[in-house]
Amino acid sequence: MKNILLMILFCIVYQKGISQNYIPTLKNNTELHYVCKLHGQTRTLKLTAETSNNTLAFKIETRGVDGKIVMLPEALKNGTALSFNQGEYEPVTNLKPTETFFMISQSAYQDLIKKGSFVYNNTTYVLDKSEDKNGVSIDGKTIDVLHVKAQIDETEMWILKNPEFPLICKIIKNPLGINPTLVKVVDK
Question: What is the pTM of this model?
Fold first, then answer.
């Protein structure tokens, strides 16, 4: 009986250990695979990170579109607007010093941690502290994210708990009709 109880306890501890949340890292050539619900259509999107000199670019690959979105260092630090550019018009798109792509700025992340909210695109997003049943998981691992809700509409975002690269892992109820979900991360 004692052995059975020890085995059950071991299984519980083991399951708890493998089910811990994890935080994917972002480095040069990391591939982020998203599934996007776009105006009623489903589309896959692959973003490949290119990092150099405090600049972050994402090479975009999706259904006939190949391009690159470049974020400036000042946007990574203090950006206040999210770009929904799809890379369709130019091979390389340089965002404004206030714009980020598939992530919020480091200062917005710090506001979220310290104040429980941040402002992006003139919209206040507030941390939802309730138990989240709609989070993001990859290969059975739950990603460690912060869940926020917009105060002006019904938009919800799940943001990676990473102060250096606070990636947006999931968006739902976006009034623009673009709702991505991170489904795979590949480090090369």
Answer: 0.85
